[in-house]
From TrEMBL:
It comes from Mythimna loreyi. The lineage of its organism: Eukaryota, Metazoa, Ecdysozoa, Arthropoda, Hexapoda. This is Uncharacterized protein.
Amino acid sequence: MTQTNNNMTVNPDLAMERAKCNFNVLEVTHIFDGGERNTLQRKKIEDVALNSGASKDALGEEHMSPKEKYENAVRKSCIYATMMKNELAELSGLESFGVSSPVIRRTADAFFKEVSPFLLHLGMFVPTIMGQCTPEQQSYWLPRALDMQIIGTYAQTELGHGTFIRGLETTATYDPETEEFVLHSPTLSSYKWWAGGLGKTVNYCIVVAQLYTKGECHGTHPFIVQIRDEDTHVPLPGIKVGEIGPKMGFNTADNGFLGFDHYRIPREHMLMKNAQVLKDGTYVKVARHGKLTYGTMVFVRVVLVNEVAFNLAKASTIAVRYSAIRRQSKPKPDEVEPQILDYVTQQHKLFIAIATAHALQLCSTWLWESFSAVLAQMKGGNTDTLPEFHALSSCLKAISTSDSAHLIEQCRHACGGHGYMISSGIPNLYNFVSATRTYEGDYTVLLLQTARFLVKAYEQAEAKKPLTPTVSYLAHAFSGSRATWDNSPDGIIRSFQALAAGKTAVCVTNMRKRMRAGLSQVDAWEMSTIQLVAAAEAHCRAVIADTYRKEIVRLTANSSPNVKVVMDQLTTLYLYYWALERTGDLLMFTSVSQKDLVDLQIAYEELLLKIRPNAVGLVDAFDLRDELLHSTLGSYDGRVYERLMEEALKSPMNKEPVSDAYSKYLRPMMKGKL
Ligand SMILES: CCCCCCCCCCCCCCCCCCCCCC(=O)SCCNC(=O)CCNC(=O)[C@H](O)C(C)(C)COP(=O)(O)OP(=O)(O)OC[C@H]1O[C@@H](n2cnc3c(N)ncnc32)[C@H](O)[C@@H]1OP(=O)(O)O
Ligand SMILES: Cc1cc2nc3c(=O)[nH]c(=O)nc-3n(C[C@H](O)[C@H](O)[C@H](O)COP(=O)(O)OP(=O)(O)OC[C@H]3O[C@@H](n4cnc5c(N)ncnc54)[C@H](O)[C@@H]3O)c2cc1C
């Protein structure tokens, strides 16, 4: 029997779950959105962007050819970009549309099952103009880019190098005679590779190249480069550009390749905020910190934490709603088949996904605020906080993307066979999020950046020198005794810090041992990298746990009692889950006993049961409209089987009763005439 809810026919199991929920869902929505005002503004933006139906496709993207898919994505990008410039910019309170509204970014997902070919324009081209140009350059380029008179991308990675930026081979050689830079791709491996939108969409790009002037190489620098005619869109002479072909995801992003044959650009097209080349070819370094040209990457790493929190919220919404309507097996012969959400193993798969979406969402807001503070200090010429921030944003990017990809895959497992359907929405989420673990700095590589900082901080702690806030716990690393286990939230967080400190200490000790045995510092470091990655991961988990806990306590200070309880249950679940995932480490670095761990496992299982009645309410609180979920399994009304059948019937394979393949191949083979 079905029930109606907001004029909608709702699956009775979902209706029952909603009736069972004992907390005010809207209050939790406000927490996730960062306040009631943000929720109201988000809803307004979604109404304007989505109620017209402009986000919908007549035929599902999955049934289109690659060319049709791309053209459709461009069509919708143009519609959405026009909305962004007009109605949405006004609604979001922005003077011009752009990178500063996560809501506008998130709402775009209703238009694209994969991604927009404009993602890199707004995600990296515009931010690079904002972060790397002089004020004069900015006043020329920014209005054109924001108004989308030009469309750009960020072409840094080459066929031969992505991680190791200092190893890039594209050259930009200054010619003082003509006051131009000559861009050149000397080898196949120097071809730019991967930039989103480069294949067919953009007419400009940021190119990162090795700068040569007066015969000397000054390392990689960014340049703004026109690659296609502004009117005809034809590639300009000296440019070889194209699309790189099918990928696991991102198939509407026309990622491209780009090569230069002694291609000339004006001197002023070097982005000169951090370094300049004067007319006579003199190189002048302006920036106080050598890595400020990496600024756009740091910005995107910060943004990505928010991005993956949102995508994990989507996957957990789909999987929890589906688990409430799906009934399977008969553990008690006299009773009806239970909802699969009643299985404790299912709760174990899913509730951590909900908790992690909250943890990452709150950490992303905190990280954004820290980033704003670092930028404000740098405006005043102070770069002291940059190393700590680079270490922090590197590990948070690595762990948030990796955990989210893993948990989205776990949500797919939780949906059984139907989760494997593209129409479930989960495969596209996974394909998108698994790429975030690699791009903008690979997981291992970024954790090793954090490890560099941790080791230095450890040495400072050893020398009793002051420590920066996120590593201040290292000061306790020299007490000589193991940290005292205590299963309160604060006690568990202290234990996570003890693990990070203990693992860092082991790395330092091993590296010193290896160096005493004759290895160079580089080789001793290399031999310790497995443990260094583990130390950086432990550090990051301590930071996330601490931030999540503190933020929830702060944000629920005035919440109603039941909201306080359910938010506390989620944070506790997060802490228990990760403590139980790291029992070996806890035994090494804290006083935890076998009995403590057995008790913790029982407490965890009891917590799952406490959260169970509120599970659907918790994902409803993410307040994700069906248009954003793109899912047969996760829609608000729970009409799962109906939607699966409707989608199956849309398949072009079902257009004809007998496939052409029958007369061409099957019949001849079966009649022995092939
Ligand atoms: C209309 C519709 C619209 C709809 C849409 C609406 C849209 C709305 C738009 C908004 C939403 C957008 C969503 C986003 C999506 C974007 C998609 C992006 C796609 C992907 C893009 C990319 O994928 S783009 C390429 C990224 N490619 C990397 O990511 C390379 C990694 N590789 C490195 O990043 C370096 O290679 C690596 C390892 C650091 C070593 O760099 P290196 O060799 O130079 O340096 P060393 O290791 O020697 O380190 C020497 C010392 O520098 C220190 N240091 C290093 N970096 C530092 C730093 N950044 N800041 C401070 N300090 C730093 C270090 O800590 C050492 O410090 P110390 O010496 O004190 O220990
Ligand atoms: C979907 C997608 C979109 C992208 N978009 C863009 C874009 O718009 N613009 C752009 O410029 N780039 C883009 N990229 C490229 C991306 O930034 C790089 O792929 C990424 O930085 C990883 O570099 P790589 O491919 O060179 O990997 P590699 O560095 O070759 O990594 C391969 C393996 O080697 C390991 N490894 C490498 N170096 C070390 C080390 N020092 N220590 C230990 N292990 C190491 C890595 O951990 C990894 O396991 C995109 C990539 C993808 C997948």
